[in-house]
Amino acid sequence: GQQLNQSPQSMFIQEGEDVSMNCTSSSIFNTWLWYKQDPGEGPVLLIALYKAGELTSNGRLTAQFGITRKDSFLNISASIPSDVGIYFCAGFGGTSYGKLTFGQGTILTVHP
Amino acid sequence: GAVVSQHPSRVICKSGTSVKIECRSLDFQATTMFWYRQFPKQSLMLMATSNEGSKATYEQGVEKDKFLINHASLTLSTLTVTSAHPEDSSFYICSASTKGVYGYTFGSGTRLTVV
Questions:
Q1: Cβ neighbours of residue B27 under 8 Å, at least 6 residues apart?
Q2: For residue B35, which of A5, A99, A51 has the smallest C-alpha distance?
Q3: Which residues are CB-contacts of B58 (< 8 A; sequence separation ≥ 6)?
Q4: Smallest CA–CA separation between B84 and chain A, in Å?
Q5: How confident is the model at residue B97 (pLDDT cuts 50, 70, 90)?
Q6: What is the pLDDT of residues B71-81, one digit of tens each?
Q7: Which terminus of chain A has fewer CB atoms gathered within 10 Å of its CB, N or C?
Q8: What angle do CA A13, A19, A21 make, to 5 degrees?
Q9: Nearest Cα to B94, choosing from B18, B31, B14, B37?
């Protein structure tokens, strides 16, 4: 089946630093989604991207839908302790019609 | 808008018993709901897709007789873990979508512990 390769797997940063993570795929997706999951909770949608090349911001978060439709990145600027959690990319479309394909997740730790 | 309520949030059951988990879309009608399983620090693994009024579609390797899914209305889907065993202990998460909406909304998850 389809796979999304998300990197890095984990990050340990100091408060105030910027963070970047990305996802790549061998398949084309029509929609890219970025989710954050806090411990013991379900994922919460951060940003949705619908068009190739689209760059979208949500507060300190910025995400882009790659031109090739096979990749996306998420940047977090000026990180704060509450940014801690697991970030997942997810793709919709491609060969797994109707289902979301998830990346492996990036575990973010922010030291005060 | 687009709130999905999942209940219970935590459940402990004895080995051999069955457990039912509910997933409700509170402010929209969900034509399709998805059930995921997640192990610690891992990604979400899709178990099955349920469509209102029809049988669920299970992913390869998921036992349909062990994980019974019912989607009797446009706002409720249930997952029943039958004859639970310790290896069924996991975090189960549902999500719901409605036609034309790409931002799937997730429930808050259910932590199942089988002792």
A1: B1, B2, B3
A2: A99
A3: B47, B48, B64, B67
A4: 21
A5: confident
A6: 888 899 999 99
A7: C
A8: 120
A9: B37
